[in-house]
Amino acid sequence: MKQGEIYNTGKMYRDTKPGLVYASDYQPNFTNKSIIMNTVSVKKAELVKVLTTNRDIHKKEHEEALQGYLILVTKALKKKLKKVEAGKEFDLNFYNLVKPENHEDDYQNVIDMLGVTGQESVDITMDDYQKYYKNNWSWHGHWHLSNKMYVDAYYATVDTDLQ
């Protein structure tokens, strides 16, 4: 292949550049579609059950994070109030305390969509499978990490109350 020629890499065409290999260019042309599984058919009732369970787990985790958030905000406010009362310098910023996000609607929207279809089974993509069955939404990793200190604060208080 000569410099400047256009070549077919499956679904993508690109001008050649000598010495460069693009990993994203490798998309082989398969004639047998069964080799690549782009979608899978699942029973609607089973998918609704999975989504409902995952939504309920998310709701519980969000409520725990929100309680922990309120505990930490209360502690921070008390510290700042002590500074005010003592006449010391203070600020009202809470840079490290961000209200936990609630993504229940992400689950509920899919459940609602499934409720309006008359089909007993639906086709989902690999990305959908990751979200719905593996609970691996694009926001999930960040959400889990950002809420960890809140959940830890919540359980520290619950554990103290139980003693």
Structure explained in plain terms:
The chain has 163 residues and is mostly helical. It has two domains: 6-35, no CATH class; 39-162, no CATH class. Helices cover 52% and strands 10% of the residues. The protein has helices at residues 44-85, 104-116, 126-132, 140-162; strands spanning 6-8, 13-15, 39-43, 121-125. The strands form two sheets. The protein has a two-stranded antiparallel ribbon with strand order 1-2. A two-stranded antiparallel sheet has the order 3-4. Residues 1-35 have low confidence and may be disordered.
The Rg value, from CA coordinates, equals 25 Å
Low-confidence stretches: 1-35
How many helical elements? Answer: 4
Structural class: mainly alpha
For the termini, the CA-CA separation is 75 Å
Mean pLDDT: 81
| Overall body shape | elongated
Number of strands: 4
Beta-strand content estimate: 5-15%
Helical content stands at 40-55%
The domain count comes to 2
Order of H and E elements: EEEHHEHH
Major sheet: size, sense and barrel closure?
2 strands, antiparallel
